[in-house]
TrEMBL record:
Pfam families: Ldh_1_C (PF02866), Ldh_1_N (PF00056). Residues 1-142 form the Lactate/malate dehydrogenase N-terminal domain. This is Malate dehydrogenase. GO terms for biological process: lactate metabolic process; tricarboxylic acid cycle. Transmembrane segments: none annotated. GO terms for molecular function: L-lactate dehydrogenase (NAD+) activity; L-malate dehydrogenase (NAD+) activity. The lineage of its organism: Bacteria, Pseudomonadati, Bacteroidota, Flavobacteriia, Flavobacteriales. Keywords: NAD, Oxidoreductase, Tricarboxylic acid cycle. NAD(+) binds at residues 7-12, 32, 95, 118-120. The active site is at 175 (proton acceptor). Substrate binds at residues 82, 88, 120, 151.
Length: 306
């Protein structure tokens, strides 16, 4: 299993590290446009192999896509991150050009690749990758919901004063401060609805904190987060590589599902060796449907800018 990660910055390197530590891929190729940067990150990570006990071979390349040839999965993290006070949508001007050229180069050298798009604004960049490559829709996956759901579980556990392993919850919708739809109605603590333990008001606080999870971290760090994003990507890569058939909320091209078409937005999907093997349609309440509709309108407004 060969995995390419484009962008050896904060998220790309974290993603490569988690993939290597989980020890399921034979090879990870890091690519960056900055001379020597991916090679340096790869060497540093390889020097953790004997310490962390993995056999994955990590190599680096400066903008040389011949090194990525024959990749099974490629992750696109290249592009600029936001700074405090910015929205993800404001990154579109620079990141659209980067994602376009990187997607083209990846598919040219690996025609059977499954693409995972991370660069922001992620739902629009996933849609752009479709327009540019024309790959079948099961082979282009946007990562956002897996991260947002991890943040939702963190906030739920905090409110419930419970261990995170005891809670479950999912976030669908667009990966944006306004567009996320945390499904508080379906959140549980060990199979018991979270609403049995928390007031409507407290659940709404959890929902609001989840939606601005990325902005909160950007305010604290001065740039956007990388550990949880890297871990979330590695989970998707592992589900595909190991044909796990796990459900994750991912951004995918919709064609009537959830009453939406011609956009990429986060919905639950089954991930396996063929990428997105199924879009899972769950029954939403009227309020959740309205939130999804509003989220889709936001994503479409950003799509109109590419
Ligand atoms: N979808 C998500 O959940 C999620 C989570 C975190 C970050 N992000 C996004 O991921 C992107 C990367 O964030 P980061 O913190 O790693 O930024 P970063 O600046 O640390 O790293 C980005 C890297 O991309 C490289 N790069 C730029 N243009 C390139 C090109 N044409 N080809 C190859 N490499 C190129 C840069 O040299 C840099 O090393 C940002 O757009 C950020 O908003 C998305
Ligand atoms: O917040 C950001 O801009 C980066 C990423 O989308 C995140 O949610 O951490």
């Amino acid at each position: 299993m060969k995995v390419t990660v484009v962008g050896a910055g904060a998220v790309g390197a974290s993603c490569a590290e988690y993939i290597a530590i989980k020890n399921f891929a034979s090879e990870v190729v890091l690519v960056d446009i900055k001379e020597g940067f991916a090679e340096g990150k790869a060497m540093d990570l390889m020097q953790t192999a004997s310490l962390n006990g993995f056999d994955t071979k990590i190599t680096g390349a400066t903008n040389d896509y011949s090194k990525t040839a024959g990749s099974d999965i490629a992750v696109i993290t290249s592009g600029i991150p936001r700074k405090p006070g910015m929205t993800r949508e404001e990154l579109i001007g620079i990141n659209a050009g980067i994602v376009k050229s990187v997607s083209e180069s990846l598919v040219k050298h690996s025609p059977d690749v499954i693409l995972i798009v991370v660069s922001n604004p992620m739902d629009t960049m996933t849609y752009l990758a479709h327009k540019v490559t024309g790959l079948p829709k099961n082979r282009i996956i946007g990562m956002g919901g897996a991260l947002d759901s991890a943040r939702f579980k963190y906030r739920l556990a905090e409110a419930l004063e419970a261990p995170i392993s005891d809670v479950d919850g999912m976030v669908i919708g667009g990966h944006s401060d306004k567009g996320m739809v945390p499904l508080t109605r379906l959140a549980t603590r060990n199979s018991v609805p979270a609403s049995e333990f928390l007031s409507e008001e407290r659940l709404d606080e959890v929902l609001q904190a989840t939606k601005v999870g990325g902005a909160t971290l950007t305010g604290l760090l001065g740039t956007s987060a990388w550990y949880a994003p890297g871990a979330a990507v590695s989970g998707l890569v592992q589900a595909i590589a190991c044909d796990q058939k796990k459900i994750f909320p991912c951004s995918t091209l919709l064609d009537g599902e959830y009453g939406l078409s011609d956009l990429c937005i986060g919905v639950p999907v089954v991930l396996g060796r063929n990428g997105i093997e199924k879009i899972v349609e769950i029954n939403l309440s009227d309020a959740e449907k309205a939130a999804m509709q509003a989220s889709a309108e936001g994503v479409k407004a950003t799509n109109a800018l590419i």
